Amino acid sequence: MSITPDVSVLMPVYNAVVNYPDDLFERVVASTMLRQSGVVVELCMVDDGSTDRTPDVIERLAAIYPRLVRARHHHNKGIAEALNTAASMATGNYFTIQSVRSWYAPGAFKTFVTALDRHTDVGFVYGATQYHGARSTLYLPPPFRREDFFRHFASLFGYMYRRGAWDQGCRYEPYIERDGYHIDISDYDFVMQIIARLGWKGLALRDTLALHYLYSGKGQMTARVHEHQREIDALFRKRWGTG
After folding, report:
1. Are 225 and 231 in contact (CB under 8 A)?
2. pLDDT at 129 > cutoff 90
3. What is the model's pTM?
4. Which domains does the chain have, with CATH numbers?
């Protein structure tokens, strides 16, 4: 009899071999599959049309980790669609996101799951994020306030939420496309759907170092978003108002 995972990790991947430091991809996956004791973890990985050796690496990792399920887009569709594909494969009770440049602290998932199990009135939880690389700051989120999310991404993307959000129709939404490249804030937009559409509240676990993030300052979605900030802000305001 198969065991229902406690956590399904949604992981979009695009050209991970050429875009990131040596072996980072493998180390990030290991941090999820080997260092989250006390919970059953499923990794739902989607290759979003990679043109390098990423598909070969994914197959090698799938042979190592039986709970790694994967799919492949034949062409690049963008992060939002890759996350939706990953979520459609997920079978866990709780969902979270991971990128090739991020890794969760050991035991973070157990802390998140315990909090969600205990606080049945809470829809999502999140902790602190430690940046590495071009930035070395620690982001410590303030206590949850609904209105904060209408102004900034107070949780950052390292949040865990109940699968009921997906089951009730929340989806990762792309924002704009420029020069054939999808630019979005789909992780932020998804948590807005949880808050504004479902009416769920969050819980900031301020004493928990949850996520590590390698920040290069360029060549990543954050930089592209900054280039088109006015357009994205206008779409965000139209979609969610100003709170």
Report:
1. no
2. yes
3. 0.94
4. 7-240 (3.90.550.10)
